[in-house]
């Protein structure tokens, strides 16, 4: 099979095209014929050497969509449409950047859809993180206000869509003036240009601060995001677009505003109920839900894809179609 292998952390040239033996599924495993996979920031972190416990060389990719090729002793049937994600994919064992991948059954979610594979590939990990951030991370309710820091990321668009469906008022930021219209077109109530002082603008719109905030940029903007949130409001840290995720010399009393709660979210396949996945796919097919722009690329363009992600030239989700 064809696969993309990261030989070791470093430049995009370390992503190499190789012919590998077809992986053989063992007990409790599923071999999937990959039809598409989404590109995630964590794969950039892997290539840059920021992924703890990763082995090299490795086939990257924390998610993939395709069909069951072989699943010995499983409840899954060959040809069945499935999502695979997380659980060590692309870290401790080979992931989705390949024509076939073998994953544990517990990391696989079956579904049914007539959507194109490129669209299907944009959904799994983004939906899982957006859904989990809003539910487990923020416990967002109808009528509340939500600030999304990093709104034109794939996760930002998806979270905005789900929050609007829930009945929340959404504020979302971008550092690029030309993308404010994109946020508005996607249903964001208050697009905000991120000039480093977002809290001031937020409190002009919501005097006491927002009820909830999703931090997707990272630790450089986290203090400003906390300052934009009301007393007894919650900030959920779920992304690191800045590639910075630690706070040097963290002193909680000085760092955290009084009464503002800080939490985080990180999930896996088990965190996305199959019914939630199927409902989202059905609504996308019906035209009643959009998780944001999808940038479709070819398997052969993987180095260009990584360059664009690293240099923040992407708005929305990049999906690689295999074959």
Automatic annotation (TrEMBL):
Keywords, ordered alphabetically: NADP, Oxidoreductase
Pfam assignment, any one: ADH_zinc_N
SMART domains (UniProt xref): PKS_ER
Domain Enoyl reductase (ER): 10-320
Name the record gives this protein: Zinc-binding dehydrogenase
Highest taxon above the source species: Bacteria
